[in-house]
Design goal:
By secondary structure, the chain is an alpha+beta fold. About 40% of the residues lie in helices and about 30% in strands. It has four helices and four strands; from the N terminus they run βαββαααβ. It has a four-stranded antiparallel β-sheet.
Length: about 100
């Protein structure tokens, strides 16, 4: 069953954050994931949630998501991520 990672990112240090972005894509792809939406135009249709920068990633399974998040390649980027942004992340299984 596919799993989707949804992130809402507030960038606090743009130059440092772009270093994270440049490096994170290869970690996603190495674990079978892909970006299906990333920082595009946002339009709030209902409610008051207004994400700063939204990304949606798709993996084949919830287990793949966990392998990616726990991988040495991704965890090596957590310092850059935390110093350059505030991120809210959820994972949801698809259909």
């Amino acid at each position: 069953m596919p799993a989707f990672v949804i992130t809402d990112v507030e960038i606090t240090d743009a130059s440092l954050y772009w270093q994270f972005v440049e490096r994170v894509t290869s970690t996603v792809e190495a674990h079978g994931g892909k970006f299906v939406a990333r920082g595009g135009t946002l339009e709030v249709m209902l409610g008051s949630w207004t994400p700063k920068r939204l990304a949606i990633l798709e993996f084949d399974s919830l287990q793949q998501v966990h392998r990616w998040l726990e991988s040495p390649e991704y965890t090596a980027l957590t310092d850059i991520r935390s110093r350059s942004s505030n991120i809210n992340m959820v994972v949801v299984e698809g259909l």
